[in-house]
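Below is how a single chain appears once it has passed through the pipeline. First comes the sequence as given, then the structure the pipeline wrote out for it. We keep one example in the README because the format questions we get most often are answered faster by looking than by reading.
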Amino acid sequence: MSHLFLFTISPVQAFIQQARKTQDLHAGSRMLSTLCKAGIDEMSKFGTPIYPNTDNDSLPNRFVGLIETNQKSAYQIGKQVQGAVEIAFQNLKDVAMQNLEKHARSKLRKPRGFDEQIGSHLQLFWVSVPLTDTGYQDAYAKLEQSLGALKNTRPFLPFTYQKEGTGELGRKCSIDGERNVKFYRMTPAEKRAGIKVLLDRKLHIPEEELTILDHKVPLRFLQTGEGLSAVSFVKRCYEMNDQINGFPSTARISLMQIEKHWANENALSGIYNKFKRSLAQIQSQADKDDQLFYEENLNEVYFQNHGLENHFSSLPELIKEQSNLRKVTDAWMRATYDRGFELTSYYAVLIFDGDNMGKCLQGKLLKSADLEKEPELLLSFHKILSLKLGIFARACYDYLRRPKGQAIYAGGDDFMGLVCLENLWQVLADLRKAFDLLVSDPICKKPDEDTAGIFPHIQENQKISFSAGLAIAHYKTPLNIVLNRARETEKGAKKVSFGGTSGKPSKNALGISVLKKSGESLETYMPWDCEGENVAGRIGQLVSALRSNFSSSFISQIYQEFSLFINPVDGAMINKVKLPMLQAELKRLLTRAYVGEDSQLSKEENTEKKKQALEEMLLNLSSLIRGKEGVMNFLHVLMIAEFVKRKTNGIQKQKE
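Resulting structure:
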């Protein structure tokens, strides 16, 4: 007999986002994909996977399939799949220990409680429903209901390995903050004081529950003064074909675009390679630190905190070479782009998630009459949706590479990536366009050979969309703070409403947050579509105009003037202030802020150029004002655009 089978792995977001380094982030994603693949492979022995597309590099935490119970019962198959996932996680633990022992060049003692932390981490849930005469749609609805009920009764199992009783007493992990430290690297001061002082005054755990790592272990596994639980340790030490070793840090993401020019431009490559060779002399390839490209980190305090105290004598020469690199780059910028050089220290975390995917999987896009006539129509739709989302996921991975940034995971209907600020607006516009081209349009608008069979059953005027959250932050801002802000912004984008009488969430939106190093923050929400054009493209045009034709002074002036007339509760202008007033003031200030005169042109030509630039700028800005309710969002868009313009160099393309 055929059964519909659903399997989920928890926790997901917490496991991925509990990270201090980008390698933790990437490792968490890859590990979950490995576990999901192990489950799918085991289930495939008894049936066929339906969702997600198994060709993806990144797999979500759940999968659906059809299983046949000819040889084993559904319960036996479910337990076998669960066992395969648990074995895969145990294998990851063993590989992590082997990797660390390889670098330590010695056998490491496994601390007490290590296996207990690993064994209690995963929460695996699965349900199966027999396929009856009522068909696939009814079985899928029961499947989701059963899973929800199962998760509501999930058990809580406290740790019992400590002699004091249940729970864990002692210092918690530097990454997850939930479990006790099992691996620790002592600071120089702690080494002088001795391990007994460390255990009694800081960690508060018995010595048999801790493994101390020495200088032989690369710093990428454990920084001085850092302590990891067993689960965080497995993430940190996870390696797959050296992908984690080469995964870029937040500093490297910030520098990607200028580093491309440093490496490829003849005027820059010599001094750049010289500085790289100097850095290579004080650090191993395994502990490569991209933050040393910033002058603020070339000091004894930073070296002391990062295990480079034996290289204080190299500091004067490194500072000189870094200064020379900046001066040469600045001269190249002025000759190539007619402006000075800014060493970019900001990057962006991008998260997006499909809108209403639960309803979509339930068949809400399909005509109800057709669903009643064809019980297996939903199954066909699931297969097509899985196929198209898989194609989009692979396109995301292929697209977001250096120097644009780096994808963390791409599951099709969800995505996380790190983006170089120089390429931000183009990346956003391209990914959104690709989603429409590869997923939404073939299913809902323009059928292709894959979707021709399902397209006649799709309701009219339907669209599959996603909402995105973007967090722009300094490379030194703690990664978990940036990740949480990006996730909060993505959730906010799903909740915001852009006018209308219903007040329901509009979704299909982009949320942008800026976390400045000073502690100040900005936030705005905009629909993806701004009068027929992608909102990211609109903001990118604004940044380009600020860089070439207009002074940014008008932004602070318009903000000071109109923020006084905005209701702080809902962000809407008070009734006495009309939108034409804002537009008229924008025109006046923009006319004064124009700086695009060209000495090579005649007076008449400059007048015409100014007129055209003003018209284009006003048209672009008008598209970003979403009625009276959106004025505060609009003002924040202006401030974000000015911030990005100030913190980047605009060097994606050379001046023609």
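The two ends are 68 Å apart (CA to CA).

See the next section for the split statistics.
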